[in-house]
Amino acid sequence: MVNRCVVFGCSNEPKKGVTLHEFPSGKRERDTWTRFVKRTRKNWDGPTSNTRICSEHFSSDLFENKMKFDLGHAKILRLHKHAVPTIYPTGTCKTGRNDGASVDAPSMTSAMRKREALQVITNFM
Ligand SMILES: [Zn+2]
C-alpha cells in the first residue's frame, strides 16, 4: 500500500522532491501535527502508525539536510527533531470549510509562517 499525505486537499504520494514523514513520537509535537491536520479535516480521528504528512507542509529550514537532498546527495529528507507543519495546501480555502473558522493560515506570508514555526520550536527547547 502506498502511503499518502493525510492533509486534506493534498494527498501527495512520495515522488521527486516530495517525501512523506511519520508523526513524531513526542507528545507535544504529535499534538501539534494532529492539530494541523484537524484544521483541514474536521472529523479526523488522529494519527495511526501509517499516517504521514508530506514535506510540502514544512518550510525548508525545518529540514536537517534539505540542501543535500536537493542536490541528490541524500535519499531521505530528514526533518528537524522539533519540526512542525505550518504550510497548508493551496486551494484548501476553496474546497474546504467555508464557515470562516480558523482558516487563517493560507493567507499568512511565508515569513510569518517561518516565524510561527520557529516560535514553536523555541517553545519546545
Ligand atoms: Zn501533503
Rounded to the nearest angstrom, the radius of gyration is 14 Å
Order of helices and strands: EHEHHH
- Spans of at least 5 consecutive residues with low confidence: 93-105
From the N-terminal CA to the C-terminal CA, the straight-line distance is 36 Å
* Tally of discrete structural domains: 1
Could you give a short account of the major beta sheet?
Answer: 2 strands, antiparallel
Strand content: under 5%
Based on CA inertia axes, which overall geometry fits?
Answer: globular
Judged by helices, strands and strand pairing, the structural class is: mainly alpha
Biggest sheet strand line-up? 1-2
Helix content: 25-40%
Task: Quickly count the helices.
Answer: 4
Number of strands: 2
Mean pLDDT: 83
Give the cofactors and ligands.
zinc ion
Question: How would you describe this protein?
Answer:
The chain is mostly helical and 125 residues long. The chain has one domain. The protein contains 4 helices and 2 strands, in the order βαβααα. It has a two-stranded antiparallel sheet with strand order 1-2. The radius of gyration is 14 Å and the shape is globular. The structure holds zinc ion. Zinc ion binds at residues 5, 7, 10, 12, 54, 56-57. The site of zinc ion (ZN) has 7 residues, from loops.
Question: Quick recap of the structure?
Answer:
With 125 residues, the chain is mostly helical. It has four helices and two strands.
Note the main attributes of this structure.
binds zinc ion; 2 strands; two-stranded antiparallel ribbon; 29% helix; 125 residues; mainly alpha
